[in-house]
């Protein structure tokens, strides 16, 4: 009998470990999309070795943002929109609308990226590739254990991307010493690059992806906090490893004086680093990055409206599938609606300070977290991220709005 109990306990521990790793990779691979690849390449071209400093600062801000969000979700046992509604009635609805709008708009870009990935990998037409990729993403949510399937796909895709990225980074022979020196003593600093990286890593729906996944898997309560904190930091570190590997790969190409194609910077880096095989490898990375972002965006966006109606809760997997179908049809029939993407990109910059600020207030409300005492250092760190991203988010919005009327 004792052995049987031990067996059940071991199975439960393995399941929890798998869920925690799955949540970390879901968050990480959600943030590593087509935009991630392009931004990292372009900023490395602009800042050279000093981009290492931008990565370091953005990772520290990311950790403060994500650890706060995941811990408060776990302690309260509530999703982000439910917490926001308890802090200010109706705020959860506003947050949900912003996140669903952002998730849908960015998913059009993710689907496009998946199509471009299959185009580079296999030579398929991008629209055909996008439709095939969407069917793959839909299949994940059709299977009985959709959560486990999603965890597994995120983990496999994450490991494949990391290995290929590291291979390319090594093959370009980057000046690692110069990169290390500039990470701690940069020759130039770009605030815009830091904001863009933080927004791309924990902005919009992304920081909630893993937190909501853990909640759906039953990982919650004060007793789960050590594991939740570890999982949240793991997600950021996976993203950081990918960012550093791509940074070094681009730095290696730039330091050799090779010209990167401005029309497709990341593909150009891989081709310059490893020829035609490098271009195919870029296709694999682009597809893996895009497909996991499609899955993450759809899953998390719908998780923000699940609590609004018993019907949505009951059929949430089918609504996730509908979300993917709408994104794919929009890309196939319209292309990428630039005006919408510009506006939503600017609005996305406001989601992180709004959501994080709300959750930090919630951390001190007994009707939400009970007797839990939130660490003061996390509150201060989270508060700094909220203020910095709030101010810069408003500045970004003011800059972007005139572009809509040109």
From TrEMBL:
Q: Where in the cell is it found?
A: Membrane
Cite the entry's keywords alphabetically: Membrane, Transmembrane, Transmembrane helix
Primary localization class, coarse: membrane
Transmembrane regions listed in the UniProt entry: 19-37, 43-65, 86-108, 120-141, 153-170, 190-215, 236-259, 279-305, 317-334, 340-364, 376-398
Q: Which InterPro entries match?
A: NRAMP_fam
Topologically, how does it sit relative to the membrane? Multi-pass membrane protein
Query: One Pfam family of this protein, by short name?
Result: Nramp
Q: PANTHER family this protein is in?
A: SOLUTE CARRIER PROTEIN FAMILY 11 MEMBER, TRANSPORTER PROTEIN
- Put simply, this protein is called NRAMP family divalent metal transporter
Organism for this UniProt entry? Sporosarcina soli
